[in-house]
Prior knowledge:
The chain is of the alpha/beta class. It contains 13 helices and 17 strands. α4 (164-177) packs across α5 (195-204), α4 (164-177) crosses α7 (251-263) and α10 crosses α13.
Amino acid sequence: MLFIPDKKHYYKNNDLSDFATPKKLHMPLFGFKSPLELLVSKGQRVLKYQQLAHKEGLFGSSVHAPVSGVVGDVLTIDEWDYLEVFNDFLNESEVPSPMNPEAISIPEFRQILQGFGIEGSGGARFPSTAKYAIEAGDVETLIINGAECEPYLMADYALMKNYAQELALCIAFIQRLFKIPKAIIGIENQHRNLKPILEKALTNEEVIGGVKLLSDFYPQGGELQLIKSVTGKTLKKGSIPAKAGVIVNNVATIYAIYRAVFKGIPYTERIVTLFDEASQKGRNYWVPIGMPVSAISDHFFRPTSEHFSLVIGGPMMGRSVQDEGMAIHKGSGGILSLYKSSYQSENCIGCGYCADVCPQNLLPMEFSKNVEKQDINQLQNYYLQDCIECGACAYICPSRIPLVQDIREGKRLML
């Protein structure tokens, strides 16, 4: 792991705000590695919170309307499908139906997760229904991931600062339902000011557990790195944490579960960090799922030019915005406007820095060589499939080799 200057101090104490809802939303019609099936048709009027699309099964999910309005076309943007919803600004909604948490069984809880579109909010978007395919007593430790280790991103910090009591209420509910002996919120040491706030909330809700301060090194927030830091257990990529007695949820996922169980509201909005490197301006906003990047960039970022690029997600694991019609999904923690690198890629000099910082103890320099040769056997021999795409190797590489790009291409070749 390595230390990366994150510049979060520029806006750490800014208030949390609401972003104006746009005239048109682009609702993502894709879940965890699979498309969703439409439940509405073009021209149909929909209410806020109405289910628009879904996919059944353990890895299924669903997406709901964040506003009332009229359904438009299905658009394909950067190889993904989105559904247009034209906002009528009447804000007419299906009335949320709060439940009695004490009466919810484990099977009913899993139905709530899928029906309310709850999925991982840390980037991977792993369906929560599959994560909670456990029974009472199966898990020893519930870890709540508050280690938002990518530079610039502060959405989880804002959530923990402003909604500690709601998070604690939901953690206590999950702990009781699955009879989990211990619940730990992991936060970076640089955010230790949150520790007393969270501890007070956990005590109020009689949560058995506490808050653990973690190092500020990247990628501390990765699931496997977090499990090791909190429990001391080392798991291989692809293993199921629950089989090792651990389950990990991002704080934003916990908050989405809270809204579903205690308010009867589906996952229709999340906190997103906006950061503009040119002005060093950053802020956290509540943003509806489906907010197009264009609706944000027009109001927040300076006019884009060839010197800047927009990134959805963090600068290490996020993706460049190829089309501003792309929209916020449930795993989007931020939208960043960053300077483009002016450095040219050079040949590998064999320094080994990429291997030194790899949290998975892999040899990233071998990935690029064998992707170029399209040698799938060698990619397997070097355990490319174990790479978590954290980007630490590319960050440290003095030859500016696009290692993450090569790694993603290598994984595509291995499919």
